Amino acid sequence: MDHLGPGRVSFLSGRLPSWAQLRVVVVAPSDRLAYDEADWRDAIVVVEAGAIDLECLGGSRQRIVRGDLLWLSGLTLRALHNPGPEPAVLAAVSRRPEADQSARSWYSPPSS
Q: 37 — phi, psi (to 5°)?
Protein backbone atom coordinates (compact mmCIF):
# COMPACT_ATOMS: atom_id res chain seq x y z
CA MET A 1 0.00 0.00 0.00
CA ASP A 2 1.37 3.45 -0.89
CA HIS A 3 2.26 6.12 1.67
CA LEU A 4 -0.82 7.44 3.47
CA GLY A 5 0.58 10.81 4.48
CA PRO A 6 1.29 12.44 7.84
CA GLY A 7 -0.80 11.22 10.76
CA ARG A 8 -2.23 8.25 8.83
CA VAL A 9 -1.91 4.61 9.82
CA SER A 10 -2.00 1.17 8.19
CA PHE A 11 -2.15 -2.22 9.92
CA LEU A 12 -1.57 -4.16 6.69
CA SER A 13 1.99 -2.97 6.12
CA GLY A 14 3.69 -4.22 9.27
CA ARG A 15 4.05 -7.11 11.68
CA LEU A 16 1.87 -7.46 14.74
CA PRO A 17 2.93 -8.73 18.17
CA SER A 18 2.23 -12.42 18.77
CA TRP A 19 -0.61 -11.58 21.18
CA ALA A 20 -2.51 -9.61 18.50
CA GLN A 21 -4.80 -10.76 15.71
CA LEU A 22 -5.81 -9.03 12.50
CA ARG A 23 -9.27 -9.23 10.93
CA VAL A 24 -9.90 -7.65 7.54
CA VAL A 25 -13.46 -6.62 6.64
CA VAL A 26 -14.32 -5.67 3.06
CA VAL A 27 -17.52 -3.76 2.29
CA ALA A 28 -18.41 -3.81 -1.42
CA PRO A 29 -19.25 -0.58 -3.27
CA SER A 30 -22.73 0.72 -2.34
CA ASP A 31 -23.10 -2.13 0.18
CA ARG A 32 -24.17 -1.98 3.83
CA LEU A 33 -22.87 -3.94 6.81
CA ALA A 34 -25.18 -4.18 9.83
CA TYR A 35 -23.42 -3.03 13.01
CA ASP A 36 -22.93 -5.67 15.69
CA GLU A 37 -20.97 -4.35 18.67
CA ALA A 38 -19.54 -7.81 19.39
CA ASP A 39 -17.79 -7.80 15.99
CA TRP A 40 -15.70 -4.78 17.01
CA ARG A 41 -15.14 -5.41 20.73
CA ASP A 42 -11.53 -4.85 21.83
CA ALA A 43 -10.40 -3.81 18.33
CA ILE A 44 -8.67 -0.75 16.98
CA VAL A 45 -9.76 -0.22 13.38
CA VAL A 46 -8.05 1.46 10.41
CA VAL A 47 -9.70 2.29 7.11
CA GLU A 48 -7.17 0.76 4.71
CA ALA A 49 -8.99 1.65 1.46
CA GLY A 50 -12.07 3.56 0.39
CA ALA A 51 -14.51 5.25 2.75
CA ILE A 52 -17.21 4.19 5.20
CA ASP A 53 -20.26 6.08 6.42
CA LEU A 54 -21.10 5.22 10.03
CA GLU A 55 -24.90 5.35 10.37
CA CYS A 56 -26.10 6.23 13.87
CA LEU A 57 -29.37 4.89 15.30
CA GLY A 58 -30.92 8.33 14.74
CA GLY A 59 -30.05 8.21 11.03
CA SER A 60 -27.18 10.71 10.91
CA ARG A 61 -23.94 9.63 9.27
CA GLN A 62 -20.26 10.32 9.80
CA ARG A 63 -17.77 9.55 7.04
CA ILE A 64 -14.40 7.97 7.77
CA VAL A 65 -11.78 7.64 5.07
CA ARG A 66 -8.59 5.80 4.19
CA GLY A 67 -5.99 6.19 6.93
CA ASP A 68 -8.46 7.03 9.72
CA LEU A 69 -7.98 5.19 13.01
CA LEU A 70 -11.01 4.54 15.23
CA TRP A 71 -12.71 2.48 17.91
CA LEU A 72 -16.08 0.97 16.90
CA SER A 73 -16.90 -0.79 20.15
CA GLY A 74 -19.77 0.51 22.26
CA LEU A 75 -21.14 2.97 19.71
CA THR A 76 -24.81 3.56 18.96
CA LEU A 77 -24.59 2.61 15.29
CA ARG A 78 -27.06 0.94 12.97
CA ALA A 79 -24.79 0.14 10.03
CA LEU A 80 -21.60 0.81 8.10
CA HIS A 81 -22.12 1.92 4.47
CA ASN A 82 -19.67 2.06 1.61
CA PRO A 83 -20.61 5.21 -0.34
CA GLY A 84 -17.86 4.91 -2.93
CA PRO A 85 -17.15 3.13 -6.20
CA GLU A 86 -14.39 0.93 -4.77
CA PRO A 87 -14.38 -1.70 -2.00
CA ALA A 88 -13.85 -0.27 1.49
CA VAL A 89 -11.30 -2.23 3.51
CA LEU A 90 -11.23 -2.10 7.32
CA ALA A 91 -8.39 -3.70 9.31
CA ALA A 92 -9.25 -4.51 12.93
CA VAL A 93 -6.49 -5.41 15.39
CA SER A 94 -7.39 -6.94 18.74
CA ARG A 95 -5.93 -9.22 21.39
CA ARG A 96 -6.04 -12.94 20.74
CA PRO A 97 -8.44 -14.49 23.28
CA GLU A 98 -5.72 -16.82 24.57
CA ALA A 99 -3.23 -13.94 24.86
CA ASP A 100 -5.02 -11.82 27.47
CA GLN A 101 -2.53 -12.77 30.17
CA SER A 102 0.63 -12.88 28.05
CA ALA A 103 -0.08 -9.46 26.51
CA ARG A 104 0.70 -7.85 29.82
CA SER A 105 4.28 -9.07 29.64
CA TRP A 106 5.23 -7.22 26.44
CA TYR A 107 5.64 -3.91 28.26
CA SER A 108 7.75 -3.47 31.36
CA PRO A 109 7.55 0.01 32.93
CA PRO A 110 10.90 1.52 33.88
CA SER A 111 11.92 0.86 37.44
CA SER A 112 12.37 3.86 39.71
A: -55, -35
Residue 66: Cβ within 10 Å count = 20
Q: Specify if 26 maps to a domain.
A: yes
Task: Dump pLDDT digits (tens) for 49-58.
Answer: 999 999 999 9
CATH number at 88 reads: 2.60.120.10
71 belongs to a structural domain = yes
Model confidence, pTM: 0.76
Is residue 38 assigned to a domain?
Answer: yes
Task: Look up the domain containing 77 and give its range.
Answer: 20-96
Spatial separation of the C-alpha atoms in residues 53 and 57, rounded to whole Å:
13
Question: Which range, of 29-33, 55-59, 90-94, 98-102, averages the lowest pLDDT?
Answer: 98-102
